[in-house]
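HUMAN: Mind sharing a backbone?

ASSISTANT:
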Amino acid sequence: MAVRLIWAFFVFVLAASITALPTKEASYREVLHAMDFHEDCVTHLGDDGVLRSFHPNGTVIEYQKLSPNQIGQMLDGFGRTRHLDEVYNGVNGHSVSHYQALNPGEDLLPRRFKKSANSTINLGKVKADCNRLGGCNPTIGNSF
């Protein structure tokens, strides 16, 4: 009987420790690799921290909510600027609802889907990464 109690306690402790193990968060590059890119898609990191893939007609076809750490990695890939640091300071895409992720307001859209589009940001390294992944057209913030 005592052996069964000790064994049950051991199993309980082992199960509790396994569920408490931290999981490694995917990098923003791993998130990009996991997205299903479509021909002529536009991939855009909104000011709300959600990385969205848009159909050429402006419909969201896929999204990933990014953590502050993943957003920081993405900004490093683009080349940090004071403006981008201000825009994304404290932003956590995981706080965005499923509805908002699929139906972003106009202020969260890439410029090409807004009524007035006039400026762009040099995307450098991240654009090259996306092109290598399948020809997407990545944007960040209110660019494009």
Observations:
- Confidence is low (pLDDT under 50) at residues 7-20, 117-129.
- Residues 2-19 form the longest helix (18 residues).
- The radius of gyration is 20 Å.
- Helices lie at 2-19, 28-34, 68-78, 82-88, 98-102, 124-134.
